Amino acid sequence: MPTQDTAYRLRQSPPTIGIVGATGAVGGELLSILSERDFPVRELRLFASPRSAGKTLPFHGHDIGVEALRGDSFNGVDLALFSAGSGTAREWAPVAVRAGAIVVDNSSAFRMNPAAPLVVPEINAAEIVRHDGILSVPNCAAIIAITPLWPLHRRNRIRRMIVSTYQAASGGGAAALAELIAATRAHLAGDSHAPRVLPHPYAFNLFSHDTPIDPTTGHNDEETKVINETRKIFGDPDIRIGVTCVCVPVQRAHSAAVTIECERRIDPDEARALIAAAPGCRIVDDPIANHFPMPNDATGIDDILVGRIRRDLSDPSGHSLSLFVAGDQLRKGAALNAVQIAEHLLP
Ligand SMILES: NC(=O)c1ccc[n+]([C@@H]2O[C@H](COP(=O)([O-])OP(=O)(O)OC[C@H]3O[C@@H](n4cnc5c(N)ncnc54)[C@H](OP(=O)(O)O)[C@@H]3O)[C@@H](O)[C@H]2O)c1
Question: Is the pLDDT assigned to residue 317 strictly greater than 80?
Fold first, then answer.
């Protein structure tokens, strides 16, 4: 498969595109973002589970039928955008590659595979050329938390970071979002609501991320992903990282409180200027109006909002800063990041 020169690119433009997981929360955003960004499309094929076969979804004024995946589904597909979970990706991404497609996968299936570039284009777009047929989009909480840290890390290496996330319901997919809405309605009406998708009542509550906990480290899967993927994306395996991931009753857009310790002194104004100049980031940092990044403001936009940039007073050396970020995890944390990667693959 392609590795050098222009061989890493799609074999034709406009490409025939397949979206696997088209009926899901990320799949819906992929459709919108391909359209918004005027991504060239020869033909669009939509795939989901057999439950959705026969449904239609609108794209560019046409209703496109949703198909269940089959052995020949990827024949003629140049670009396969996967957002259907890691099990589906493990089973079907290799099928797509064998059929000649380049896969951009939103799941965790291949992220830590050394052959699969793990790409946030604002950070490591150069990795795209070395793919072997599959490229991975990083974990959404990782993308939102670390994209604004990259310009700081490049100037003054971050040797330690502590990240606490506040993750939106739609991060758990369309069913988790529907459960938050149903549970909130029931709560306000004084009705009982038994959680079905999530492990705990979600209305007016929050809970530790519902992924399995590694008994050795005490970290759940989401936290472990943020640690390992940050090191891979930054190309710096020695950064010391502590993470706590929490689900909050917000519909959309993840937030994170981040504290970093750099190798040399770092000034909040210098950090603010570096982040302001970085692609994909927008400073929202108004102490007088008490206006800082909020998921409501981050919803539906491409930029990650960054504010509360201040000295970490617990480190008198002046090497440490704290900040707060909010970013739309369905867009920059998944669908937009995937489409940005795909734009680099266009011939
Ligand atoms: N939600 C986020 O914020 C976010 C962010 C970053 C990455 N991701 C990743 O993106 C992927 C999709 O997440 P999501 O939030 O969009 O989930 P979702 O709303 O639950 O959607 C899942 C999609 O996968 C499809 N699917 C399930 N089983 C399938 C199968 N056997 N074959 C083909 N399609 C199948 C579903 O089809 P049906 O509708 O027919 O069931 C649906 O289209 C996951 O890997 C997730 O980890 C999500």
Answer: yes
